[in-house]
Design brief:
heterodimer, A: 778 residues, mainly alpha, 32 helices, B: elongated
Chain lengths: 778, 100
C-alpha cells in the first residue's frame, strides 16, 4: 500500500512527455528538458515541508499519514530519482561521450559589462555584455554522481522515516529534519548538474549550510552545537580558498562556464601557467575542506553528532563527494595528450593531490584503529577511502600531464568507480550502524524503564544515564539478533576492505595498481610515498573494518542490553537489502561491463561483452584484475590482496573475534565469520592499548589541540584587541558625545522657567532678531 | 475689489493679536485658538499675494494650510485632553515639566 504513490511518480516523465511534448508544443520532449526539475523540485518542496510542518505540528494526520513530512520528502526524491533514471536512459541511448557532453543552456541569469584599463592606462569598457547563464552539463562522471546522489538520498529518506519517526527524542520536530534534508538533496543534485563553476559554488554553499543545520539538529546538546559550528567554520576555510580560486579562474578565462573553459584550457598556449597552477591549488584546498582531507579533516568525526541518516547522507554518501567531483573536473586542464588541450607543467599540483590523499588515507586508518564509537570508525573510514580516491585522481592527473592517456584513463575511471562503490557501501554501512544504534537504544530503553511504551513518555529525553548506544564495547554477539543488519554490514565492510569480486575490490585494485604504475614504472618517484601509504592503508582497512564488525556482531553480548536487541523497526531493512544487493553484485556487473573505461574515456558500457560474449568478458576481466602482465604490478596486486584480506582481518579477529552465544544463530550467509574468528585464538593487546601511541590516536593525533592552540595564539588576541578598540575608542567616542550633551542640557534646564509661553516668547524674539540682522545684512 | 494691501495689513494685525494671545493667556484652549488666528493671518497673506500677482499658487497653499490646521487642532485638543486627564488642569503655567 505504501509503495503506491512512489510507483505512480515514476510515471511522471511519460506524462510530461506526452502532455508537454506532443500535446502542448507538438515537438518531442526529452528527459534533458526536464532535467532542471531534478534539483528544482526539492528546492520548491523545502519551504512547503518547513511551513506546513510548523503550522500543523503535533496534529495526528501530519504525524501519522505524512510522517511529519517524511512522505512528502520521499515522494519528491522519488520524482528526482525517476527523472534521473529517464535521463540516464536517454544518455545511454544518445551515446554522449566525455568530449561531447549533453549540454543545455536554459536562459541567461544576468548580463554585465566589464571595466578595465587599456594600453594607455585609461579605464574603459573592455568587454561588453558578459552573461552568466543557467544550464545543465551532463557527462559520464556527472551522470554517475547524479544517480548516486538521487538514489542514495531516496533510500536514506526511506530509512529516515523508520529511524527518525520512531525515536521519541525527535517527536514533533522531524519536519525540520525533512525540510533540511530535501534542501540538501537539491544542493547536491544542482551541484552535479551545474554547467559552470559559479553554479557549482552556489550549490556547494547550499550543501554547506544544510550540513551545518543537520549536524546541529540536536542543538540543545552542547556537543552537537559545537560540532555544527566546527564543521561550518572548517569548511568555510576551504570555501574561501575555493572562491579565490574561482576569481583567479575568471581572471584567466573571462568566464566560469565549463563549455568555455574546457574548450581550450591552454588558450592556444598563451595561458599564464603559474596563475593557473595557483588557481587549481586554491580550488583543491576548497575540495580538501569539503571532502575532509588532511589538514581540514577535523570536522568530519565530530559531524557524527547529527542524526545517523544525516551521517549516512552527508558525511559518507554525497556531500563529501563534492570535493572529489570538483577535482575530477580538473582533467581538461591537465590533459596534454592528443585528446585534449591541457597545459603542461601542472604535474606538481597532481603530486600535491596524491600526497594529501596518501597522508589522509594512512592517518585516518590509524585513528580508526582505536575508535570505540561505531559511527566514528565509519567516519574515519570515510576519510580514508575518500583519500584513496584523491590519490587516484592525483595519479590520473599526473598521467594526463605526462601524456600517458591509457594509464590516466584507468586511474581516473578507477577513482570514479571507487567513488560509486564507496558511496553505495558506506551509505549502507551508516544505515546499518543506525539500525544497530536504534535497536540498542530501544533495548536499553525497554530494560531500563520496564515496559515503558516508547513514543509517549517524555522523561526519556537526552542521556538519562551514561549508557551509550553507539559504543561498540556495549555490543557484541548481535549477528544472531539482527540478521539483516549483520549481513548488510558484512557485505559493506567486505566492499570497503576490497574482498575480491565485491564492489570496492575492482576500483581499489585499480587505484593501488595505477599509483604504483606511476611511481615505479613511469618514473614518478615523487609519488612513491603516497603509493606506500595507500598500500599500507589497504591492510589497515582490513583491520579496522573487521574489528568494527567483530566488536559489534561477533562474540558474546557484552551488556545485558545487547542480549535483548531485536530487529523490529519498519522502513529500516528495505534500503539495507537494496544496497546490499547493489554492493554485492553491482560492482562485479559494472566491472564486467567496463565501468572504469566508461567513466574514464566514455567507452560505451558493455563493449567487452559485445565483442567477446559474456563468458570471455568475465574471464578477461578476472585475468586483467588478478594476473596483470607486468610482473611488478602482479606483485603489487597480490600484496594488496594478501594484506587487506588476510593479515588485517586475521589480526582483528585474534583480538576481537569469538563465537556467538550458545543458541544464537547467525544467518547462513555470514554464519562462518564468527566461527572462523574463534579459530584464530586470542591475542592480548592491553599493553598496546594503554601505550602512548594509542592515547595519541584516541586524541586524534592532537589535531584539535594544535588548531585550538593556534587559534588561541592568533585569532583570539587579535579579536580581543579589536574588542578593546571597539568598546573603548569607537563606543567611547559615541558615549562621550551622548553623556556630554546630556550634561549640557541638564545645566541649561536649570536656567529655564518651564512655561510654554516663555519658550514661545524666546523663540519669537530670536526670530525677530534674525530678521533684523538679515535686514541689516541685505 | 479690495486692494491686496488691506488684506495683508489685516493679516499682520491678526497675527500680532494671535501672538499676543499666545504670550499672555494661561488657558491652553485659548492658546490653541490664538494659534489658529495666527495661521489664518498667514492664510490672508497668501490670499493677498495671490491677488497681487494673479497667481493661483497662493490659494492652493491656503487650502493646504486650512486642512493641516484642522488636523493640528485635533492633535492639540487630544494633547490637552491627555494633559487634563493626568493633571486635572490645562493651565499652562502649571505644566512645567521641562524644568525638572
Amino acid at each position: 500500500m505504501r509503495f503506491l504513490p512512489i510507483i505512480g511518480i515514476f510515471l511522471l516523465y511519460p506524462f510530461l512527455r506526452i502532455f508537454l511534448g506532443e500535446y502542448m508544443t507538438g515537438t518531442p520532449f526529452t528527459a534533458l528538458d526536464s532535467a532542471f526539475l531534478i534539483p528544482l523540485l526539492p528546492i520548491a518542496v523545502f519551504p512547503v515541508i518547513a511551513i506546513v510542518g510548523q503550522l500543523s505540528n503535533g496534529e495526528g494526520w501530519w504525524r501519522d499519514q505524512f510522517k511529519e513530512g517524511g512522505i512528502i520528502a520521499l515522494c519528491t526524491l522519488a520524482i528526482s530519482l525517476s527523472l534521473t533514471i529517464w535521463l540516464a536512459i536517454e544518455f545511454f541511448t544518445k551515446g554522449a561521450s566525455f568530449h561531447e557532453p549533453l549540454e543545455w543552456g536554459l536562459f541567461n541569469w544576468f548580463t554585465f559589462d566589464t571595466i578595465g584599463q587599456n594600453a594607455a592606462g585609461d579605464w574603459v569598457h573592455i568587454q561588453v555584455s558578459n552573461s552568466i547563464g543557467v544550464g545543465i552539463w551532463i557527462d559520464n562522471v556527472s551522470m554517475m554522481l547524479l544517480f548516486v546522489a538521487s538514489f542514495l538520498c531516496f533510500l536514506i529518506c526511506w530509512f529516515s522515516i523508520g529511524y527518525m519517526n520512531t525515536d521519541p527524542v525527535n517527536k514533533d520536530r522531524n519536519h525540520r529534519f525533512y525540510a533540511e534534508f530535501v534542501l540538501f538533496t537539491a544542493g547536491m543534485l544542482g551541484m552535479v548538474l551545474a554547467d559552470s563553476f559559479l553554479w557549482l559554488f552556489i550549490f556547494w554553499e547550499i550543501m554547506g549550510l544544510c550540513s551545518y543545520l543537520l549536524i546541529g539538529f540536536y542543538y540543545e546538546r552542547p556537543s552537537a552545537a559545537y560540532a555544527a559550528k566546527k564543521a561550518f567554520l572548517t569548511t568555510r576555510v576551504g570555501d574561501i580558498f575555493l572562491l579565490i580560486g574561482l576569481l583567479m579562474m575568471y581572471d584567466i578565462y573571462g568566464s566560469l562556464e565549463f563549455a568555455v573553459i574546457f574548450a581550450d584550457p591552454s588558450m592556444g598556449g598563451s595561458v599564464d601557467v603559474s596563475m593557473l597552477r595557483w588557481s587549481l591549488v586554491m580550488l583543491f584546498i576548497g575540495a580538501v575542506g569539503k571532502s575532509a582531507q588532511f589538514p581540514l579533516h577535523v570536522w568530519l568525526p565530530d559531524a557524527m553528532e547529527g542524526p545517523t541518516p544525516v551521517s549516512a547522507l552527508i558525511h559518507a554518501a554525497t556531500m563529501v563527494n563534492a570535493g572529489l567531483y570538483l577535482v575530477a573536473r580538473f582533467v581538461p586542464f591537465f590533459d596534454v595528450t592528443s585528446h585534449g588541450h591541457g597545459v603542461e607543467g601542472l604535474s606538481d599540483v597532481a603530486v600535491l593531490i596524491a600526497w594529501i590523499g596518501g597522508i589522509t588515507a594512512f592517518m585516518a586508518a590509524l585513528i580508526a584503529f582505536v575508535q570505540n564509537d561505531i559511527k566514528k570508525v565509519l567516519a574515519y573510514s570515510t576519510m580514508s577511502q575518500l583519500a584513496y580516491i584523491f590519490t587516484g585522481l592525483g595519479v590520473a592527473l599526473w598521467f594526463y600531464n605526462h601524456g600517458e592517456h591509457h594509464a590516466a584513463v584507468i586511474a581516473f575511471g578507477a577513482s570514479m568507480f571507487h567513488l560509486f562503490n564507496h558511496a553505495m557501501a558506506k551509505g549502507m554501512l551508516f544505515m546499518a550502524s543506525g539500525s544497530v544504534i536504534h535497536e540498542m537504544h530501544h533495548a536499553h530503553h525497554h530494560l531500563a524503564h520496564g515496559d515503558g511504551e516508547d513514543g509517549d513518555d517524555s522523561h526519556d529525553e537526552g542521556g538519562h544515564d551514561d549508557f551509550d548506544p553507539q559504543d561498540m564495547r556495549n555490543m557484541g554477539g548481535l549477528a544472531g539478533k539482527m540478521p539483516i543488519t549483520a549481513t548488510a554490514m558484512a557485505i559493506g565492510s567486505a566492499s570497503i576492505i576490497g574482498l575480491p569480486l565485491i564492489g570496492g575490490f575492482w576500483s581499489k585494485e585499480g587505484i593501488v595498481a595505477e599509483t604504483w604504475n606511476a611511481a615505479a614504472i613511469h618514473g614518478g618517484t615523487e609519488l612513491l610515498i603516497p603509493a606506500f601509504l595507500i598500500l599500507l592503508t589497504a591492510g589497515m582497512t582490513g583491520f579496522y573494518m573487521t574489528r568494527m564488525w567483530m566488536m559489534t556482531f561477533a562474540g558474546k553480548p557484552k551488556t545485558e542490553f545487547a542480549d535483548h536487541v531485536e530487529e523490529q523497526t519498519h522502513w529500516i531493512p528495505t534500503p539495507l537489502v537494496t544496497l546490499s544487493v547493489i554492493t554485492l553484485v553491482g560492482g562485479f556487473v559494472l566491472a564486467i561491463l567496463g565501468a572504469t573505461y566508461w567513466l574514464g574515456e566514455a567507452k560505451a558500457l558493455g563493449t567487452l561483452v559485445h565483442e567477446h560474449g559474456i563468458v570471455l568478458a568475465i574471464l578477461e576481466t578476472l585475468v586483467h584484475a588478478f594476473l596483470p602482465t607486468d610482473p611488478f604490478l602482479f606483485m603489487v596486486t597480490w600484496i594488496t590482496i594478501t594484506i587487506s584480506l588476510i593479515v588485517g582481518p586475521a589480526m582483528a579477529m585474534r583480538i576481537h573475534g569469538g563465537k556467538l552465544k550458545d543458541g544464537d544463530r547467525a544467518p547462513q550467509l555470514i554464519s562462518w565469520i564468527p566461527l572462523l574468528s574463534s579459530k584464530f585464538g586470542r591475542a592480548n593487546v592491553d599493553e598496546l592499548a594503554n601505550s602512548g601511541l594509542a592515547d595519541a590516536l584516541h586524541r586524534r593525533l592532537y589535531f584539535d589541540e594544535i588548531y585550538e592552540w593556534a587559534i588561541a595564539r592568533t585569532v583570539i588576541p587579535l579579536s580581543q584587541a579589536l574588542t578593546w578598540f571597539d568598546t573603548k575608542v569607537i563606543d567611547g567616542a559615541i558615549k562621550g558625545i551622548e553623556s556630554g550633551s546630556q550634561k549640557i542640557s541638564r545645566d541649561v534646564r536649570k536656567a529655564t522657567s518651564g512655561s510654554a509661553s516663555d519658550y514661545i516668547l524666546v523663540a519669537v524674539i530670536g526670530m525677530f532678531s534674525i530678521l533684523i540682522l538679515l535686514w541689516g545684512v541685505i | 475689489m479690495i486692494p491686496p494691501m488691506y488684506l495683508a495689513s489685516l493679516g499682520a494685525i491678526l497675527f500680532c493679536i494671535g501672538l499676543m494671545g499666545v504670550f499672555t493667556s494661561k488657558n491652553g484652549i485659548i492658546v490653541l485658538m490664538c494659534i489658529e488666528i495666527m495661521l489664518n493671518a498667514v492664510n490672508l497673506n497668501f490670499v493677498a499675494g495671490a491677488l497681487h500677482y494673479g497667481d493661483v499658487t497662493g490659494w492652493v497653499y491656503t487650502g493646504i494650510a486650512i486642512a493641516i490646521a484642522a488636523a493640528e487642532v485635533a492633535v492639540g485638543l487630544a494633547i490637552f485632553l491627555a494633559v487634563f486627564s493626568s493633571r486635572e488642569t490645562i493651565d499652562l503655567d502649571e505644566v512645567t515639566l521641562l524644568k525638572h
